[in-house]
Design goal:
The protein is an alpha+beta fold. It has a single domain, classed as Golgi alpha-mannosidase II (Immunoglobulin-like), CATH 2.60.40.1180. The protein has three helices and eight strands. A five-stranded antiparallel sheet has the order 1-2-3-8-5, with no helix packed on it. β2 and β3 form a beta hairpin. It starts with a helix and ends with a strand. The mean pLDDT is 88. InterPro entries: A-amylase/branching_C, Glyco_hydro_b. This is Alpha-amylase/branching enzyme C-terminal all beta domain-containing protein. One of its GO terms (molecular function) is cation binding.
């Protein structure tokens, strides 16, 4: 940026942002993330009151949390801060959560590892397995890409 500044050039090289390279994909990712946030009130409707940590495993650098319920749908967000991906990973759900028994289906609705954002696309979840015990969901079994964020929509009854 300093070179561009010293030579009177724009601070942003717009040709990079407009290309289909990683720069353009990053710009598309940010735009899609902003739209996604706006169209899902679970993320902003009740502020931090609807934030609940559900999983943390430090050795694998994976954390997960819930965000609100809207129209019988709740979001589960999973972050993998490691450069290791998993084709099958179990996210244990907290037994004290009163809505666990209401989970009917879980669908991946956002994956930052998508090829359209420059990701590998190798860790897409067509079907997320819900492991039940005594009619309560206790585990989500799914693929988790490296250095990525997944958003799952839990459909509740």
């Amino acid at each position: 940026w300093y070179h561009r500044f010293r030579h009177g050039l724009s601070s942003i090289d717009w040709s990079l942002a407009e290309s289909a390279t990683l720069h353009g994909r990053t710009q598309e990712y940010i735009a899609d993330l902003n739209k996604f946030y706006r169209y899902h009130p679970q993320f902003w409707q009740n502020g931090e009151q609807d934030f609940e940590m559900i999983y943390e495993y430090k050795p694998n650098l994976i954390v997960a949390y819930h965000r609100g319920i809207y129209n019988q749908r709740r979001m589960a967000i999973i972050h993998n801060f490691s450069n290791r991906g998993y084709q099958s990973y179990d996210i244990s759900l907290p037994m004290w959560d009163p809505d666990i028994a209401r989970i009917q289906k879980v669908v991946e609705i956002f994956n930052s590892d998508s090829p359209m954002y420059g990701g590998s696309g190798l860790f897409h979840n067509e079907n997320i397995t819900i492991v039940f015990r005594h009619e309560r969901a206790i585990i989500f079994r799914l693929a988790i890409p490296p250095l990525a964020t997944l958003v799952l929509e839990e459909q509740l009854n």
